[in-house]
Amino acid sequence: MEIYVLFFVAAIAAGAINALAGGGGLITFPLLTLVLPPVTADATSAVALLLAYPAAVWRSRGQLSRVPRRWVWLLLVPSLLGGLSGALLLEWTGDRNFIVLVPWLMLVATLLIVLRPVLVRQRHGSPRSSVEPVFWPVATAATFVVAVYGGYFGAGIGILLIGTLSLLMGMDDIRHVVAL
User: Fold this and answer.
1) 11: helix, strand or coil
2) Domain locations in the chain?
3) pLDDT for the residue numbered 88
4) Contact, 174 vs 116, CB < 8 A?
5) What is the C-alpha separation between 41 and 60, in angstroms, rounded?
6) With b meaning 16 or more CB within 10 Å and e meaning fewer, what string describes 91-107?
7) What is the mean pLDDT of the chain?
8) pLDDT, tens digit, 9 for 90 and up, residues 46-105
9) Which DSSP category does 37 fall into?
10) Based on the number of CB atoms within 10 Å of its own CB, is 62 exposed (0-12), middle (13-18) or buried (19 or more)?
11) Which residue blocks in the chain are alpha helix, DSSP H?
């Protein structure tokens, strides 16, 4: 009975963390691996935290008006293709490779959580009105890579996206980044 209470509390905490800035899967995934095979735990964690994303968008919807619409379209296609590619990669590589890669993927996601304040200085203001066109392919490619990670593993994807958008697109205010 105690494990159910632990899972319930962890799910609530992870959902709240995901709605704020992402990283809730770093809580739910390890707990789920106690009772499920790793790939099943990863998928279960992703589905369990799915509703946190619309909640985050709803909470930050006022900030979307400050984000140029072309950014949404610029990032939508590589996000969808990368997520699909990551999911297919997970399907093709199977449990053995997943088990080998997961500790490294969790380490990367955790380091980005810790290092984000160092990597991105906060300037509370509006995002740049335009990203230099030379950075569009870089931002698109980086978003694709992050989406592949998200489709393959998922835990920490919010932090990776926040870092990518903050660094490459000049979105320093986390409220704008979460909205996008």
Assistant:
1) helix
2) 2-179
3) 92
4) no
5) 29
6) eeeeeeebeeebeebbe
7) 77
8) 887 777 777 777 777 777 777 677 777 788 899 999 999 998 998 888 777 888 888 887
9) -
10) exposed
11) 2-20, 25-32, 38-48, 52-59, 69-119, 136-152, 157-169, 174-179
